[in-house]
Design a protein that fits this description.
The complex is a heterodimer. By secondary structure, chain A is α/β, with parallel strands linked by helices. Helix content of chain A is about 20%, strand content about 35%. Chain A has two domains: about 90 residues, Elongation Factor Tu (Ef-tu), domain 3; about 150 residues, Rossmann fold. In chain A, β14 and β15 form a beta hairpin. Chain B has an eight-stranded parallel β-barrel, surrounded by seven helices. Classes of the chains: A alpha/beta, B alpha/beta.
């Protein structure tokens, strides 16, 4: 696996909802090597506070060497990131981790909740490679409200995927949580890919296990380095002991994870 | 490996007892893995040495998550000494370390004095190990879980056990979570330590006010990063005046300026820790920065500035 540091230039900043932003940066070496589900460690400037890089999954890879990152402002690090306009520099290390295994046959269902939509768009792009269209693959997306969901939904739609939407406030699609949409589609699905808040992924994992459908989850944890040295990003696995999100993941088979209730 | 002069015409070599280093910059245990993980970003051959992730007799799984949380200018960790165990270290990790072309210092830890001695004995005679660093911040299971490093007698007992079994220089890594670190330093010096390294992390805590839960599953953890540098520097200065053996400075070192402060305070070498997490190449930058400083100051050798802080007489 090849990893790079790139001092990348921001080429675009979009505000999707109040606290949700999308940055487009030029990072040609990382973009060329990236696989869906992998992430980058991001540092803004040389500040001591925040000190550590922030892990962000790769949202989109553009043909011109661009990378897109989708994130919500949750603290100082993402706050600084959201203030970066075109021409500013950010320091990236990537691509990191083990991404999604692209299942060879059968219809897939991509399920994204909130910022969990980020890696799924890159996956949706890659699943179309060498195919005329998405076939029977479909996408389920959930977010807090219409503002947060409408642009990502339009983009998935632009790739040709049938969409099922849910919002917490009912302003777009189903009024409720995205796993509630899964029951109707699961019988025709062979492979589920999910990324989102922990309770949502746990519910999807449980439904898939009950239905005997393969499920891959992309996990998020605190991590200091993203490079396999701090050992801070441990997750408990069903077989006992721990695995590390940065190197063993962030994508795991759902059954490998010991889900906390 | 022992170039007389560094490429820049400045002599960066230092000695930790019988351990000769090409420059005074090491990586701290637990921040550089087993040497292989960061090779995309740093050339280990340029470093003074690598202190590998702490090793115990048996593998350890570590603590439940969450294990890390960022705090102001630093971070808390409670990794729980996760490691592959000494046998897998020797068979799987050491072969790579051996051919990196840098000094390999193996950090060891145990729950009893006997375990420390057995570990040092197991590593004796193993090719490719240049020194041992003894982590005495671990809880002493036979003494009710009080850390070895907080009691002079137990710190000395661990040191004696390792010194008796080891065939390489023994560096004892001191905990800052004590009333007087110089007392512990003198105790391990008297017990035969070839050097001391300090500081290990400062015990700390963080709470998420929304959930009202501690941020770490272990509740408390070790604070590291630039936040602890002034405390570490003060302790290095105190210990350097208290002992005759070499002192290795650790604690929030992220730049050459930081490293120079520790050298001036009396450290013969330094270890770069948390900075490796966000700038894996920090060690190499610090070496370059020390060389540039010495050249500007007209100092031909780094050893000339060790302990040269100018404290006015009161």
């Amino acid at each position: 696996m090849t990893e790079f540091q790139e001092k990348s230039t921001v080429t675009a900043r979009e505000s999707l909802a109040g606290d949700v932003f999308r940055l487009t940066v030029q990072a040609p070496r990382i973009a060329a090597a990236a696989q869906p589900g992998q992430f980058v460690m991001v540092r803004v400037g040389d500040t001591l506070d925040p000190l550590l890089r922030r892990p962000l999954s790769i949202h989109q890879v553009l043909p011109d060497g661009g990378l897109r990152l989708l994130f919500k402002v949750v603290g100082k690090g993402t706050g600084l990131l959201a203030e970066l306009g075109p021409g500013r520099k950010i320091d990236l290390i990537g691509p990191l981790g083990r991404g999604f295994s692209l299942a060879p046959a059968g219809s897939a269902c991509l399920i994204g909740g909130g910022m969990g939509m980020a890696p799924l768009y890159f996956l949706a792009q890659r699943l179309l490679r060498g195919k005329p269209g998405p076939g029977h693959d479909q996408v389920l997306l959930g977010a807090r409200n219409r503002a947060e969901l409408s642009l990502p939904a339009a983009e998935f739609s632009g790739l040709g995927y049938p969409l099922h939407l849910a919002t917490d406030d009912g302003s777009l699609g189903h009024h409720g949580f995205v796993p509630e949409l899964l029951d109707d589609v699961l019988p025709s699905v062979r492979q589920v890919y999910v990324c989102g808040p922990y309770p949502m992924m746990r519910m999807v994992a449980l439904k898939c296990r009950t239905a005997g459908v393969a499920c891959q989850v992309s996990l998020e944890t605190h991590m200091a380095c993203g490079l396999g040295v701090c050992l801070g990003c441990a997750v408990t696995v069903a077989a006992g002991g721990y695995k590390h999100v940065c190197k063993d993941g962030p994508v795991f088979a759902a059954d490998e994870v010991l889900w906390k209730m | 490996m022992e170039d007389v002069m560094d490429r820049g015409g400045v002599d960066l070599r230092v000695r930790i007892g019988a351990l000769h280093l090409r420059n005074p910059v090491l990586t701290a245990s637990g921040t550089f893995g087993y040497g292989r993980e960061l090779t995309a970003f740093v050339n280990p051959a340029r470093l003074g040495g690598i202190v590998v992730k702490g090793i115990s007799l048996a593998p350890r799984p570590g603590n439940p998550p969450p294990r890390v949380v960022e705090t102001a200018c630093g971070m808390l960790n409670a990794i729980g000494l996760e490691n592959v165990g000494v046998e897998r270290f020797i068979s799987d990790k050491l072969p790579f370390l051996r051919q990196t072309g840098t000094r390999v210092i193996v950090n060891i830890l145990g729950d009893t004095v006997e375990e420390y001695g057995r570990l040092a004995g197991r590593l004796a005679g193993v090719e490719g190990i240049d020194a041992l660093e003894v982590n005495i911040s671990c809880p002493n299971v036979k003494k009710g879980g009080v850390a070895f490093g907080t009691v002079p007698e137990t710190a000395a007992a661990v040191t004696r056990a390792v010194r008796a079994a080891a065939d390489v220089p023994v560096i004892v890594k001191l905990s800052p979570n004590v009333t007087d670190i110089a007392v512990i330093a003198r105790a391990v010096e008297d017990a035969g330590a070839d050097a001391v390294s300090l500081i290990n992390t400062l015990l700390g805590m963080a709470i998420d006010s929304r959930s009202r839960k501690p941020c770490l599953a272990n509740v408390v953890g070790g604070l590291s990063g630039p936040a602890i540098k002034p405390v570490a520097l003060r302790m290095v200065w105190q210990v350097a005046r208290a002992v005759a053996i070499p002192v290795i400075g650790i604690g929030g070192i992220a730049t050459a300026e930081d490293a120079l402060e520790f050298l001036l305070a009396g450290a013969t070498a330094v270890q770069v820790g948390t900075a490796n997490f966000y700038r894996p190449w920090a060690g190499e930058e610090i070496i370059d920065g020390i060389r540039d400083f010495l050249r500007q100051e007209g100092e031909p050798a780094v050893r000339n500035i060790i302990g040269q802080v100018r404290v006015d007489e009161q």
